[in-house]
Each structure stands twice: as structure tokens, then as C-alpha cells.
Design goal:
Strand content of chain B: over 45%
Oligomer: heterodimer
Radius of gyration of chain B: 13 Å
Structural class of chain B: mainly beta
Number of helices of chain A: 0
Distance between the termini of chain B: 36 Å
Number of helices of chain B: 0
Number of strands of chain A: 12
Number of strands of chain B: 11
Largest sheet of chain B: 7 strands, mixed
Shape of chain A: globular
Shape of chain B: globular
Strand content of chain A: over 45%
């Protein structure tokens, strides 16, 4: 069935380091792909999305490119800040009312 | 301020005691969902509603009920809670469906003893 697999955490980086969080998916057709972020004690917030192959979503310095050939949607940021510490979820909307979330990757950025 | 509110934020209860978690949104969104978040499993959809009086099951609906009598409200009902329903619950809303941005409430942490 449709599913999302993202890299296990936790991930710990120093401030200004480069971030990659891997996400791959399994789905038929042309799903929409999302990255959501959850800050401590809060609900999830949409970080970025892409709706078709080769689309690049970007927001707050984060980027992810929808790669249909590798079924991937990896999240990247060139220089992380302490305020980026959060849990990041890759998610997939394969069709209609179906939504699949990855298990989440906890990122901690140290000064 | 555009927001999704949930109450209560924390709840400890005992097996079999009926409870309701309320959810309300002020963005005039058509679509609302309930999720549960468990460690290592991400979020899983419990129920969703495409509009008033239209609800349907998600991936893990067993032991839950919902209703959508008004556009803004989407309560989650546990008629007879069990310990395996101990979890963190999120309500979310979006303009018209899951391809749109979902706005999440702050969460309700439920413990069933």
C-alpha cells in the first residue's frame, strides 16, 4: 500500500551545519508530497509541499524536490539555526481522503 | 486569529468512562480530520469530514465516533475508552481537502488507565 519512509532520528547538528532528512515514498499515480514541522508542545505546521514531479517546494530556507524517478522528497537546509529544532514529518496524499505520514525525525541544533 | 482549538489539552481517565474531545476552527474550512500520534508511527487518520453531516472512517476508526453538525465543530467521542487509546490526538482543518494545507490544533494528550 501507499507509505512514507523517512530517516530515523534523532539528528543532532551544530548551528550553521547543512541538513538533509531523507524521505522516500511508495504510491501509485501522482501523489502530493508535504513536509510538516512540529515544534515542542505544538501542533504540526506545513513547511512546504510539491504536487507534481520535479516541483521544488521551499520555505524558510528549507527545500525539497519531488523526484519521481527515485520516489524521494528529501528535505534540505543549507545552514540550520537553533530555532529549527523540531520534529519533521514527511507526508503523502496519494489520492482523495488518504494521508500518510512518516514516523517523524527529531532534529536538535546546538549553538 | 485563524486557528484550530482543542479541549481539553490533557486528560486522564479510566477504562470505560465516555469522553469527548472538542475541536473548533474559525477559518470556514470544509474539511476536518482527527489524527492520533504514537511514537514511531507518525500520525494516523482516525476520521475525517468533508462537510457538514458528511463523515467517513480513516485508517484507525475502531473505538471512536465523530459528528459534524456545524461547519466549525468536529468533536471526537470515545464511548468506552481503553488503554490502547492512550495517545496524543490532533484535530486539523483544511480548505477543501488533504491536498490543501492542513491547520492543526495544539493536541490533546489522553491517558486511559
Amino acid at each position: 500500500g501507499d507509505s512514507v519512509t523517512q530517516m530515523e532520528g534523532p539528528v543532532t547538528l551544530s548551528e550553521e551545519a547543512f541538513l538533509t532528512i531523507n524521505c522516500t515514498y511508495t504510491a501509485t499515480g501522482y501523489p502530493s508530497l508535504f513536509w510538516y514541522v512540529q515544534y515542542p508542545g505544538e501542533g504540526l505546521q506545513l513547511l512546504l509541499k510539491a504536487t507534481k514531479a520535479d516541483d521544488k517546494g521551499s520555505n524558510k530556507g528549507f527545500e525539497a524536490t519531488y523526484r519521481k524517478e527515485t520516489t524521494s522528497f528529501h528535505l534540505e537546509k543549507g545552514s540550520v539555526q537553533v530555532s529549527d529544532s523540531a520534529v519533521y514529518f514527511c507526508a503523502l496524499n496519494p489520492r482523495g481522503n488518504d494521508m500518510r505520514f512518516g514516523a517523524g525525525t527529531r532534529l536538535t541544533v546546538k549553538p | 486569529e485563524a486557528q484550530v482549538t482543542q479541549n481539553p489539552r490533557y486528560l486522564i481517565t479510566v477504562t470505560g468512562k465516555k469522553l469527548t474531545v472538542t475541536c473548533s476552527q474559525n477559518m470556514n474550512h470544509e474539511y476536518m480530520s482527527w489524527y492520533r500520534q504514537d511514537p514511531g508511527l507518525g500520525l494516523r487518520q482516525i476520521y475525517y469530514s468533508m462537510n457538514v453531516e458528511v463523515t467517513d472512517k480513516g485508517d484507525v476508526p475502531e473505538g471512536y465516533k465523530v459528528s459534524r453538525k456545524e461547519k466549525r465543530n468536529f468533536p471526537l467521542i470515545l464511548e468506552s475508552p481503553s488503554p490502547n487509546q492512550t495517545s496524543l490526538y490532533f484535530c486539523a482543518s483544511s480548505l477543501s481537502g488533504l491536498a490543501d494545507e492542513q491547520f492543526f490544533g495544539p493536541g490533546t494528550r489522553l491517558t486511559v488507565l
